[in-house]
Prior knowledge:
Blueprint: H1 8-32, H2 57-74, H3 77-87, H4 100-124, H5 134-152, H6 154-160, H7 166-188
Helix pairs in contact: 1-2, 1-4, 1-7, 2-4, 4-5, 5-6, 5-7
Bound molecules: cytidine-5'-triphosphate and magnesium ion.
Cytidine-5'-triphosphate binds next to helix 1, helix 2 and helix 4.
Amino acid sequence: MDLEKLSVINTFLVVMWIMGPAYIANSVAVLTGGRFPIDQGRTLEDGNRILGDGKTWSGLIGGTLGGIVFGLILNTDGGHSALERLTGEELSREIWGENPIFVFTILSFGSLFGDMSASFYKRRQNLDRGDKFALLDMYDFIFMTLFLCLIFQKAWLTSWILDGWTPLFIILFLTPILHRGVNIIGYNIGVKNEPW
Ligand code: CTP
Ligand code: MG
């Protein structure tokens, strides 16, 4: 795929599409989460929880599966024609590389693993579950996702996201907006405790 040939708007759509499972994994975790804290209530020497009650197995497993299922749906014929209609471009059917299921798995799991790593860091900074940590809360998941892709799917990642700077800038620009937007909706419909 040659993103450089697409207009900025279309690059934007394709980037969202590709990263979709990572974004969805986070939202699904909020819906399925809340049961079976991963740290089982344990604390470290600083007296704070390892991760806190906001990181649970039900969120991790539900979110990872949700992201994978979402990826599989996007990767159907219907999904591909929807993207082609949306962009008006004929796009490669291999936007997730040769092993899409593996890519969906690292996109989804990476997203939640990043979120978990941030919670670990927040607890070490004496921040309670749900306390705000602006930049970290917004970018944690996307950085870990990209990092895991860089380790496990370097060729695929470099073939699109490091193809010029546009895709990366779009991700950095869009992630906080999407993150905040979805959380405000989640807060207003009562599935999330805080609007961040
Ligand atoms: N959630 C979960 N398990 C996960 C991720 C999220 O159960 N692995 C659920 C929790 O109910 C959590 C909610 O999704 O409260 C919102 O996620 P997030 O904002 O990441 O957690 P916080 O409660 O803000 O906790 P933290 O301060 O640790 O980020
Ligand atoms: Mg939070």
